[in-house]
Amino acid sequence: MKRTVELGFLLAVALILSYVESLIPFGFGIPGIKLGLPNLIVVLLLYRDKALSGGAKEALLVNGLRIVLSGFLFGNLYAILYGLAGAACSFTVMVLARRCRYLSMVGVSVLGGVFHNVGQVMAAVFVVETFAVIYYLPALLVAGVVTGAVLGLLGMELLPYLRRFMERG
């Protein structure tokens, strides 16, 4: 029961971050560039436990629910499709990178940001049926590195508080 309440709380925080992100005009004229604020919750869940496996199952559950719910609340079906494609690619890479002892939370988060954009561009290629959208990839990769680094640094600062929150009953 305690774990369900904790995950429900983190899902609510992720949804709030999704809403806040939808209000911020950020994009520089390039479709798909976002801050990725809700991904902070995913990174925190992956690092919640000190074990290298982290909280991957919980992170996957919260992220999937967040994408579907925020898509219906603040977006559309395309937002859900692109979000799930980016999240699947990003999550897979982050879980594998988390197991690497040589990468910090910042490195894992940067990889997550980069591969989220790769997943979304792959989905866009299929949706719009043209490879022309690949021209956005360099700008999206730079944005993924920058936002991933910022979220990783923020995650490092917030992780001790999350661990204390989850240790309390």
Task: Walk me through this protein's architecture.
There is one protein chain. The protein has 169 residues and is mainly α. The chain has a single domain, classed as Orthogonal Bundle (Arp2/3 complex 21 kDa subunit ARPC3), CATH 1.10.1760. 75% of the residues lie in helices and 0% in strands. It is built from six helices and no strands. α2 packs parallel to α4 and α4 packs antiparallel against α5.
Q: Layout of SSEs?
A:
Layout: H1 2-23, H2 39-47, H3 56-74, H4 77-98, H5 105-128, H6 137-167
Residue-averaged pLDDT = 90
Largest sheet: none
CATH topology name, in short, is Arp2/3 complex 21 kDa subunit ARPC3
Shape: globular
Q: Strand tally, please? A: 0
The helix count comes to 6
Q: Which structural class should the secondary elements be placed in?
A: mainly alpha
CATH class: Mainly Alpha
Helix content: over 70%
The CATH architecture comes to Orthogonal Bundle
Q: Which ranges are low-confidence, i.e. pLDDT below 50, for 5 or more consecutive residues?
A: none
Number of domains in the coordinates? Answer: 1
List descriptors:
169 residues, mainly alpha, Arp2/3 complex 21 kDa subunit ARPC3, 6 helices, globular
Summed up:
The chain has helices at residues 2-23, 39-47, 56-74, 77-98, 105-128, 137-167. It is an all-alpha fold.
